[in-house]
Backbone:
């Protein structure tokens, strides 16, 4: 029996609760929103991007956006940083063989090529520092871990001088790499900037 109450001397029967509907998340809508947001994140950063700017570059509705990303643009940025494709880039490169410094050069080149061809990769570099430190080896953390592994390999195979502060060197390389990617006013392409960076950095790493 439905509960009743007294209101101003009259018996009050509560209205039945409205049925709730759960909207299903559409993977295609999610990907479209990620792609649309990537362009805005790259141009304006996370703080400078508005939800309306994202929606103007996709056919998704505002409702669909919040169904897929409940916290709005922050959730989109977090999803972008955690995308499986960044770890996949590391795993694909790990299949290569060779000396540590040569593999490090090819890995930096692979990152540059991905950034040039993939708007989501460019956005990843732009917004990662605006988010709380992501858990696990996601996004830039996965790239940094691979750089550290290759520096260790280079020390072991003799292609680089003994690196006592390997982690510090990996952190420094990541800072330089991000700077090369974000130097949007440069007349050089991302790939050209990263290659130039490597030409400057490598002499300080090679064995003497």
Residues:
């Amino acid at each position: 029996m439905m509960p009743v109450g007294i209101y101003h001397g009259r018996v009050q029967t509560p209205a039945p609760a409205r049925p709730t509907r759960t909207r299903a998340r559409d993977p295609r809508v999610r990907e479209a929103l990620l792609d649309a947001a990537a362009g805005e994140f790259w141009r304006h950063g996370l703080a400078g991007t508005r939800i309306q700017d994202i929606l103007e570059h996709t056919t998704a509705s505002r409702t669909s956006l919040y169904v897929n990303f409940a916290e709005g643009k922050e959730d989109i940025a977090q999803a972008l940083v955690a995308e499986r494709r960044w770890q996949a880039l590391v795993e694909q490169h790990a299949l290569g063989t060779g000396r540590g410094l040569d593999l490090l050069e090819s890995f930096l080149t692979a990152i540059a090529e991905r950034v040039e061809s993939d708007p989501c990769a460019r956005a990843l570099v732009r917004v990662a520092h605006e988010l709380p430190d992501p858990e696990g080896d996601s996004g830039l953390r996965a790239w940094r871990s691979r750089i550290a592994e290759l520096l260790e390999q280079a020390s072991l195979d003799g292609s680089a001088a003994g690196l006592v502060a390997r982690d510090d060197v990996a952190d420094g390389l990541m800072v330089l790499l991000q700077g090369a990617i974000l130097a949007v006013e440069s007349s050089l392409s991302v790939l050209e900037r990263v290659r130039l960076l490597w030409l400057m950095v490598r002499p300080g790493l090679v064995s003497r």
